[in-house]
Known about the structure:
Chain A is of the alpha+beta class. Chain A has helices at residues 42-53, 79-86; strands at residues 8-14, 20-23, 29-30, 59-70, 73-76.
Amino acid sequence: MSRAFTPKVVTANALLEGDAVWLTEDNRWSRDIREAELITDEAHGDLRLLEAQARADEIAGAYLADAKAGENGPEPTHFRETFRTRGPSNYAHGKQVELSDV
Amino acid sequence: MYKYNDFDEGFVRSRVAQFRGQVERRIDGSLTEDEFKPLRLMNGLYLQLHAYMLRVAVPYGTLNSGQMRQLAYIADKWDKGYGHFTTRQNIQYNWPKLADVPDMLSALADVEMHAIQTSGNTIRNVTADHFAGAAADEIEDPRAIAELLRQWSTDHPEFQFLPRKFKIAVTGATEDRAVTKAHDIGLRMVRNDAGEPGFEVIVGGGLGRTPMVGKVLREFLPKADLLPYCEAIVSVYNLLGRRDNKYKARIKITVHENGLEKIQALVEERFASIRETFSGHDQALLKDIEAAFAPPAYVEKSTDGYEAARLANPAFRSWTDTNLSAHKADGYAIVSISIKKHGATPGDATSDQMRVMADLAEKYGHNELRISHEQNVILPHVHKSDLAAVYAALREADLATANIGLVSDIIACPGMDYCALATARSIPIAQEIATRFDELKIEHDIGQLKIKISGCINACGHHHVGHIGILGLDRAGVENYQITLGGDGTQTTSIGERAGPGFSADEIVPAIERLVTGYLDLRTNADETFLQTYRRLGMAPFKAILYPAEDKANAA
């Protein structure tokens, strides 16, 4: 029996700023994971990743990250991805300062 | 200090122009990320967790006031007003925008600086004793040799695609402040029986996944043979180094798998074949470089005012006791400026602080600064009569923390707060430890103690050579911190031993507190350092302190 698929989001870094971004269902790159498309089907995830990787003039280093459904949209399940949603812990820099679309 | 000649200037400028074109082509879509990545890494540009990171070389940690001011200007104009000094004596900017990087590199070129070979599988920024040219225990200033190595290794066509990165460290002193035994090549200046200076050549040291203490490849290498000999070592590594597994690609593994004797034979053979091709040009070049590192014009002044200030001001006295080192010139001291204020990020300096340090170097320090591998900044030549003024200015700038070599003078890599490779955070752990011991007010009673923290197995925080090493790991999706004890990065190098199971982020600071306060009970007297106590007693009593429940269970 194949292993159950863990829900995912497509994430990458914005090309110009390097900021963490997530792919939305309507094909935008959002700086807010809560706007991301939560992918529950493995084949669909593979396809969305390929589509993301093809957008090389917008982002770099796209990959699928584990996520779960939260009250306001997808939430990360691993602490590394949690840090990517908010920025470093020593200064109020990065996403802690502002959230807006690419 | 060495000053760029026309060739250096032209070379660096052309690299900036070349990279500007590459960035433009990446942004307009002509280059994919796969095509662009090796090009940006050749210019020190990484893509990290939240942003790009530009790593700028500070060759052998030496810079002047103008260069430090330019680093501050870059931090203000294209970053967030601060920079992070690293264990490779570099400075990193954590928030540059891709389109701005060519301008940043151009601004660096304006002050004879660059970011070339601060990344990639090539010879990285050559590091040196941060007290070079000033230390009382020095045979010779090693910076001329380090500059020669920089010129030789920069854009060396044979060494741009080595099996892995390659790191060289040089010291000219008896006390090893450059961690030479944990480098791919460590060079320790020694004298032979005839009194001539040369090098003990150490090879195959390194930390990371497989920590190893370097082995002596040559007990004495004449100074004149250094460049062809280093070229022979890197050539042999380039051919023999493993490319099938990146975790086994460093020269330490090459030496380990092939044996020191085989490597020695191959290096000597290669050395014999290439030595003549150097034809003395390297020595002519070295003479020019050595002239550029002539000692500054020291002055003779009374130090009475210094002694009076020490008597009058206990805080100043405490700072001088902790942050000064012996200088080779009468009346002078080496000042270590702590970039480790309790609770601050180790190695981070604001642009204002950089400008203060630049001003002090210009006014009181013969215009010289150094970055130490321990993430502090050094004023190598300050007359003792100026120390009270230096201290007052540092205090004003929040830079007068008297903790060099103490428990809060922690090396910490950026960890998962910034680094894409990290498996846990380092910075908050360092901040909490420093804050905790500041609250306890026992830092000076504890004495010399080096804590080093890495956020992953790559060991950028040198945890293996920390008296107390902390390694951050990911254990089933949770940050976990493993402790090693007994590491040492000096001439008596040793790799720390793992104490036992790791601690959670909540448990690690209390564990370190338990360990250090427990040491106070174990030491024979206040002069016995943590490392000496550990070497005398071994792991057992420290393990009992760290894991009291386990100890009780074993006793039952």
